[in-house]
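Re: the 320-residue chain
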Amino acid sequence: MSKYIDMTEEKPVIIIEEKPEVIPGQGQGEVPTITIERDHSDKGSDNSTKKNPHRLWAWTICSILATALLCVGIWSGWRFYRAYNNLGVPIAVSPDENIGKLQAKNAADVTPEVVMTSDSVLGVALNLYEARGLRAEISMNEPDTADTDVFLYSRCADYHPDFSIIGSMVIDGKEIETARSNRIGYFAGVGDNYVIGVSRSDKVKDFAAQNGGCFFRQFILLSAGTLPPHFYLHGKVERRAIGRMSNDRLYYIETLHKETMWDFADALREYGFIDAIYITGGYDYCFYRTADGTRHDIGDVRRFPHKHAGQVPWVVFRKK
């Protein structure tokens, strides 16, 4: 028996060839041979384990796209959460609840008037004006002092130097083109009702537009009795606001002295306001009327009429 290894093939196979033994005294026999040959039945098995380069590229591209879609989904979810749920403050009244208030029927026999009271809290002196039996509108023209139907008016939304309005605005059911802003406080009026609230949702704005109402946005001072985490305006100037008490009565409020936004908001909270939005024009002239129709000045009378007539928006409370 002889063995030999044939290395000419890639996968050798041992082959044993039987040859006669060599018997002493007899002639030399053949030696067995061992041959190693390739097993052709496994030929090509190495190639089957090799990865297809085109398939590898396809898997890589799919993985990248899946990762990108996951990132976009997470980012979109975060933006939605920030926009409609995580405003940095709790919400006392939802947009749907405020729409319900705008649809409610009011008593028709309320005497139109503005009742003014003065008080001081945490060292902040305040004048508070409660509008009764009135409806709200927004006008681009400042009311005249001789207009006896006007019982209270004030600046409302802010504007850029080019007079483009900051934040959403609706006047007489018509939506005005405005610049986007991060102001989440709002005022809305429809028919004889008006409300304030806090939300980035456009539900209330759209309702006002569909029902011939008014709407504007401003900074928040209070939401559900909580101050926002930070204020965008700094320094000390005369401040104004519209605030809501727990009984749903709304008040126009002014400080008698220069105050920071934080001190003003903290005083409103201490006084008992639940929600409050900022009103610009801290010492601009405006007026209010008592039940007998007598006009009383607010602010600096030298600032009437406003020098940017027809370009500055005013919130106006009139007889129903």
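Confidence is low (pLDDT under 50) at residues 40-46, 80-86.
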